[in-house]
Write a structure and sequence with these properties.
The complex is a heterodimer of chains A (162) and B (367). With 162 residues, chain A is of the alpha/beta class. In chain A, 28% of the residues lie in helices and 30% in strands. In chain A, strand 3 and strand 4 form a beta hairpin. Chain A is elongated, with a radius of gyration of 20 Å. The mean pLDDT of chain A is 83. In chain B, the strands form three sheets. Chain B has a three-stranded antiparallel beta sheet. In chain B, strands 6-7-8 form a three-stranded antiparallel beta sheet. At the A-B interface, strand 3, strand 5 and helix 3 of A face strand 6, strand 7 and strand 8 of B. Chain B: It is a peripheral membrane protein. Chain B: It catalyses: a quinone + NADH + 5 H(+)(in) = a quinol + NAD(+) + 4 H(+)(out).
Chain lengths: 162, 367
């Protein structure tokens, strides 16, 4: 019942922002281009009867030729679930910050920046959160090169006579 | 000439500080003893779990989940294996579901006991600490009987449970359940009913309902701010819809309610375990799952109610034996965002109290 109502509002919203609606294991997924993201999040927050007004999670995903920023939305007062995916350009990963919609996006966006290098425009304090400040590279990108096992083995082998 | 302003002092607390619950560091800006600004520094325990997952098969990642919130490791196993099962469409046997409920709720009790103990310890209540840890040992013993380890139990598998509890487990569980009302009375009598403890915790660190919702806070911290939200009720996973229990909600919004609500939750957990022990059927504990776990192409977000809040796993599968992306939504990492906002304007000893009642576990915060 809720899902049907939600589906109608999501379709309306998708038509407004030129998005694609899919369904994955019973959850509605709305895919949009990065510039529309704030409009989508604000729209979802104010759906009549079935507001998706609670941000559960925000994370980056590396899809090869582009990045996705995935928002898991729901409500504390109903069963509605919505997943919003914003497609971000890989060469120039910039997207508007959701901290003005939910303050709780603060650390999550810092983490996505730390791990994927996605820049959130308008974030109050966009710094690395887990890695140290002068760390180079973005670890969760697929093209991030970790130390190969051969190199590690060389380091761990004792030199003769040591 | 009057002096009404002191020089700002920047104080570094942690990572090696007894009240920092692991490796948490914060830079505290003080004016006299009053906090003007807090800058939390994370990452001292960062092991790159999400990156590690991408080079391990689905089954190989289960022991890693134990190391997230290591005070309630069965819950982390549970969230992860259920996410994979949802992705694969596996149904697990009834007995395994009941055993998962029993171990999950035992983990909740153990985790809350640690929270109660460490809150008491941070308020310099040494004796209360030893009482709660004494009782938690009995849960660790029950883990040990079944799984062989006491902290990182690694008890669940994709498709069921790794081990059947031995015969001596059931009397041990029964005697533990019988003793809990007395335990809770002891904790209350020795610490929470104490005037000094109340003075330190009551009306300290107010987190209003609106702030909590805006900051994506979940778990007991949210419920202590008067929001009736529990994943077990909102989106019943496993077989929680068969059990009769209440979700404790308190409206004090302060540190005291954030701690005492955990005592209420222990009472509800006891109720759930009693019903599970009464109704548990016989039968196998593992479903028939293929030796090589290969979920179809797709994605899933699965959440469970961890003792500390909502723990979610977002898995993107590309049809191979390893996940293409595994995202962990840690509860306390997000709950921690309230600390700089709530602690502003309080004295430095109140910051310790506020941080203690958040019940942060750095294994989960730093991943």
């Amino acid at each position: 019942m809720e899902n049907k109502k939600l589906s109608r509002y999501v379709d309306e919203l998708a038509a407004r922002v030129n998005g694609v609606v899919e369904e994955s294991l019973g959850v509605l997924v709305l895919k949009v281009q990065a510039p529309y993201i704030i409009e989508v999040l604000r729209g979802a927050k104010e759906f009549p009867f079935v507001p998706c007004d609670f941000l559960h999670d925000l994370c980056g995903v590396d899809c090869g030729d582009h990045f996705e920023v995935v928002y898991q939305l729901s409500s504390l007062h109903g069963p509605q679930l919505l997943r919003v995916k914003a497609i971000v350009d890989r060469e120039n990963p910039v997207i508007d910050s959701a901290t003005h919609v939910w303050e709780g996006a603060n650390y999550l966006e810092r983490e996505a920046y730390d791990m994927f290098g996605i820049k959130f425009k308008g974030h109050p304090n966009l710094k690395r959160i887990y890695m140290w400040d002068d760390f180079e590279g973005y670890p969760l990108r697929k093209d991030y090169v970790t130390e190969p096992i051969e190199v590690r083995n060389i380091v761990r082998t004792r030199i003769e006579g040591e | 000439m009057s002096i009404d302003k002191t020089q700002e002092l920047v104080l570094n607390m942690g990572p090696q500080h007894p009240s920092m619950h692991g490796l948490f560091r914060m830079v505290v800006h003080l004016e006299g003893e009053t906090v003007t600004h807090i800058d939390p520094k994370l990452g001292y325990l960062h092991r790159g779990m999400e990156k590690l997952a991408e080079s391990r098969t689905y089954s190989q990642f289960i022991p890693y989940t134990d190391r997230l919130d290591y005070l309630a490791s069965p819950h982390n196993n549970w969230a992860y294996v259920q996410a994979v099962e949802k992705l694969m469409g596996v149904e697990i046997p009834e007995r395994a579901e009941y055993l998962r409920i029993i171990f999950g709720e035992l983990a909740r009790i153990a985790s809350h006991q640690v929270c109660i103990a460490s809150t008491a310890l941070d308020m310099a209540g040494w004796s209360a600490w030893s009482y709660a840890f004494r009782d938690r040992e009995r849960i660790c013993d029950m883990y040990e009987m079944t799984a062989g380890s006491r902290l990182t139990v690694n008890i669940m598998r994709i498709g069921g449970m790794s081990a059947e509890p031995p015969e001596e487990f059931w009397p041990a569980l029964q005697s533990f359940l019988d003793d809990t009302p007395e335990m809770l009375e002891e904790y209350y009598g020795i610490f929470f009913g104490n005037e000094i403890a109340m003075g330190r915790l009551k009306n300290v660190g107010i987190l209003t309902k609106e702030m909590a919702e805006n900051l994506s806070i979940t778990g007991p911290v949210l419920r202590a701010s008067g929001v009736d939200f529990d994943v077990r009720k909102a989106e019943p996973y496993s077989i929680y819809d068969r059990f009769d229990f209440k979700v404790p909600v308190r409206t004090g919004c302060d540190s005291y309610d954030r701690t005492i609500i955990r005592m209420d939750e222990i009472v509800e957990s006891i109720k759930i375990i009693k019903q599970a022990v009464r109704d548990i059927p016989g039968g196998p504990i593992m479903a028939k799952v293929p030796k090589v776990i290969k979920p179809p192409v797709g994605e899933v977000y699965h959440r469970v109610e961890n003792p500390k809040g909502e723990l979610g796993f977002y898995i993107v599968s590309d049809g191979t034996t390893k996940p293409s992306r595994l995202r962990i939504r840690p509860a306390t990492f997000i709950n921690l965002q309230m600390l700089p906002i709530v602690a502003k304007g309080w004295k430095i000893q109140d910051v310790v109290a506020i941080f203690a009642t958040l019940d942060a576990v750095l294994g989960e915060v730093d991943k």
